[in-house]
Amino acid sequence: MAHSRSIGSLPICLLLLVFCTTTANALHFYLDAGEKRCFLEEIPSDTVVEGHYRTLEWNEQEQKYVDNPALGILVEVDELESGHNVVRTRGPSDGRFTFTSHESGDHSVCLSSNYGTAWFTKTHIKLYLDIVVGSTKPDRDHDRSHVSELSAKLRDLNQKLEDIRREQQYQREREANFRDMSELTNSRAVWYSLAQIAVLVATCAWQLRHLRKFFEDRKMH
């Protein structure tokens, strides 16, 4: 029953991992007193990074790792490309550090013990490290300028649409005027053709009458 319940909760855990907006890197490692351990972390620019560490010292009498408030940790963060030192801080055995990346790229995160007499002893340390890379900081000035740019583009687009609408209205009016003129010209052409036919008919009738009268006069003589 417990096995099926754990399987049923698996999709929920996967969904939580998918929708997580930050990247968390948790690990633990061992080092001796005075030893430095470094890790590479690829971080986007203008990104808030939070780190939490906790150290335990090996106790020979108890044969296990225990808390030692006298332990100190030196944290150093450098941008590899520019060589810029972002963080250099000394903290207790259980502490946190926070910084904001100025450039995107690989960052070196180094930790070392800062234990007074440990430089001459064989102190073994177990260190837990949890690094959370947060989302990029919002650039409000860029957002405002982007919104202003979008507003200007929308105004230009509306103006162009209004110009197109006026042009279409003008073309419709021209088309209507051309249609009226064409219909008037066609009607005039029809009346002109009818007038020509009437003149031709009248001329033919007059010529026939004139010829008939001419032949009648010739017969009388």
Which segments are poorly predicted (pLDDT under 50) over 5 or more consecutive residues?
1-22, 116-120
H/E order of the elements? HEEEEEEEEEH
Number of helices: 2
Number of strands: 9
Could you estimate the helical fraction of the residues in percent?
A: 40-55%
As a percent range, the share of strand residues is: 25-35%
Tell me the radius of gyration.
Answer: 48 Å
Secondary-structure class: alpha+beta
- The separation of the N and C termini measures 144 Å
Task: Explain what you see.
The protein has 221 residues and is α+β, with helices and mostly antiparallel strands. The protein has helices at residues 2-18, 140-220; strands at residues 23-32, 36-43, 47-59, 64-66, 73-79, 85-91, 94-100, 105-113, 124-136. The model is unreliable at 1-22 and 116-120 (pLDDT under 50). The strands form 2 sheets. Strands 1, 3, 4, 7 and 9 form a 5-stranded antiparallel beta sheet that branches. 12% of the residues are buried.
